[in-house]
Amino acid sequence: MKIFTEGDYEHMSMMAANVVAPYICSGMTIGLATGSTPIGLYGELVKKCRANKIDFSRIKTINLDEYVGLDKDSKQSYRYFMDSFLFDLVNIDKRNTFIPNGNGDLDKECKRYDELIERYPIDLQILGIGHNGHIGFNEPSDSFSKNTHVVELTKSTMDANSRFFTGEKMPEKAITMGIAQIFSAKSIILLVNGESKADIIREALLGPITPRVPASILQLHEDLTVIGDMAALKYV
Ligand code: PGA
Q1: Structure confidence by residue, pLDDT tens digits, 180-201
Q2: 214 lines ligand 1 (CB under 6 A)
Q3: Mean pLDDT per 10-residue run, the chain (236 residues)?
Q4: Is 134 marked active-site?
Q5: What is the maximal distance between C-alpha atoms in the chain?
Q6: Given 6, 44, 109, 134, which residue is catalytic?
Q7: Can you give the pLDDT at residue 72?
Q8: What pTM was estimated for this model as a whole?
């Protein structure tokens, strides 16, 4: 495991962009995350693209998760998030960007997503971590999940994400890649910032490996890079 502790969110995002850039330039398949944490990284990648330092035209992206039951055009959807923070701002072919569809036949969608990940194995997976240790929407549980599946969101996740849902009911379910699929990425970058994540990141990286802290499985990954700010990484 490599750990980069940067002074603040801005520097952590710049460091992350420097680590991710070569994967983009080599036209790899990149697993993407949403949430507040990677927004700075996406901003830095957009800057590099505008400066002609990186070219998104050959990559494929596969997002971790999506809410169930939101309108197609909902501003809270992760498709909308990815379009606004990255895809609409760089030279990516949107036909090569994949995000689970949280509407329609969910069993079929899980199968479609499993097949997609099999067809395009993930070279680099970018992750954030929830306050309860979730990765993607894999909430604490009795076992590690394997494939794409539908989950009931926990109260901790609902509380953390409800800030984005002013005037709209927050979905109680989501569709997410499984832990085994995340783990199968050749390389993983885990991003974390802020004092409020210091305890959970310590538990995830230094505590016992348990599905009660889903991110703890990452301790076993052969190519894990953790990039965070000093506030989040003060105990590791
Ligand atoms: P955040 O979410 O980046 O908004 O803190 C991370 C996560 O829930 O995985």
Answers
A1: 999 999 999 999 999 999 999 9
A2: no
A3: 98 98 97 98 98 98 97 90 98 98 97 98 98 96 97 91 87 97 98 98 98 98 98 97
A4: yes
A5: 47
A6: 134
A7: 74
A8: 0.97
Active site residue 65: yes
Q: How far apart are CA 214 and CA 112, in angstroms?
A: 24
The reply to whether 132 belongs to the active site is yes
Ligand 1 near 76 CB (within 6 A): no
Q: Check: CB of residue 233 under 8 Å from CB of residue 198.
A: yes
pLDDT at 218: 98
Q: For ligand 1, say whether the CB of 37 is within 6 Å of any of its atoms.
A: yes
CA–CA dist 64, 22 (Å, integer): 21
| Residue 180: count of CB within 10 angstroms of its CB | 12
Name the residue among 34, 68, 75 with its Cα closest to residue 168.
Answer: 75
> How would you classify the pairing of strands 29-32 and 149-152?
unpaired
Judge if the beta carbon of residue 30 lies within 6 A of ligand 1. no
Q: Catalytic one among 96, 103, 132, 147?
A: 132
Helix, strand, coil fractions of the chain, as percent rounded to 5: 40, 20, 45
Catalytically annotated residue among 139, 149, 161, 193: 139
